Structure formats: structure tokens, C-alpha cells
Amino acid sequence: MLSRSRAVRLLVAVLAALVALFVVPAGPAWAHNSLRSASPAKDATLPSAPSELTLEFLQRLDPTFTTIVLTDAAKRKVPTGDPVVAGARSTVKVSVTLPNGTYTVAYRVVSVDGHPVQGSYPFTVADPSVAAAPTSTTAQGASPSAAAAAEPDRRPAAGVLVGGGALAGLAVVATSLLWRRSARRRP
Known about the structure:
By secondary structure, the protein is α+β, with helices and mostly antiparallel strands. It is built from 3 helices and 9 strands, in the order αβββββββββαα.
């Protein structure tokens, strides 16, 4: 049988473990992939059009589930080659010469933990020797894949939810067992 003081210490230890699980920042093994660097860089103004886009992430990429989409200011998809993945880096060749204007790079990748990561960022081409790109405020030419890649996934990882639920359940069971034991001891 546990003494009342040992039971209280055990309960405090379980609760402290639960608090630590949700308060302490996730380490690298739990962290989801994210964009480390890009060329062209976010919000960059380039004096000439890039011939390729390179995105480097924190973790290795799955080539099967890597998508990079380039759109112009009118949200029309710009032709690019298929992504070439090497470890944590993915590169696409731009199939056309980009006229001056603002462009958006949208990406969707699957990280090592299987979690999809997506985002987007703009850059501008401002080559003094090239005409400006046509602009439009409508998104009639936007592709569904570009829109999907631009919208970030904000769902929590299933493993964190399952682990947190299991620990919370364990805390409830431990608390009820301790209260039962202390209730039996009372005259």
C-alpha cells in the first residue's frame, strides 16, 4: 500500500510530466519540417529573371510528395519542370523567361515524420531591359494545386494528440486509484 505522502508525490510527478510534455518546446525529433532557405529568397527583388527555383528544408524530402508551383501576379501558373529532390533540397527549372512583375512560389512537401508542410512567398523580377508582366486582380487562371499549396496546414500532428490523450487518461486513472486507496483507509 502507498502511504498518503507517497501517493501525493506520485500524483505530483505524473502531473509534472504532463505539464512538461505540453509546455517544453518540441525537440528536433518532434519538430515538423520547415523551409530553411530559398532562391530566389522571400520578398527578393531580382535584377534578372531566375531560370530555376531552389527550396531547402530542415529535413529530408519525399520526392513523391514534393510540389512547387510558380504563379504570376494574376495567379496564373507559370510553366516549370518537375521538382528534382536531393535530400532536403528541391529544385524546379522555370520553363519560360519571366517578364518583370511579382511572382509567388507555393510549395507542399512531406517531411520525414509524414506530416505535410506547405507555404508560399513572393519575389519580384525588376529587369530594366525587360517589359513588365501583365497584372490582374482576378484569380481566374489560378490552378487548384497552387491554391492548395499556398494554404498552410494548421492541424496538429496525430501522434501528439494520441500521446497527450493517453497521458491525460493515465493521470485520471492514477488520481482515481489514489483517491480510492485513501478513501478505504478512512474510518
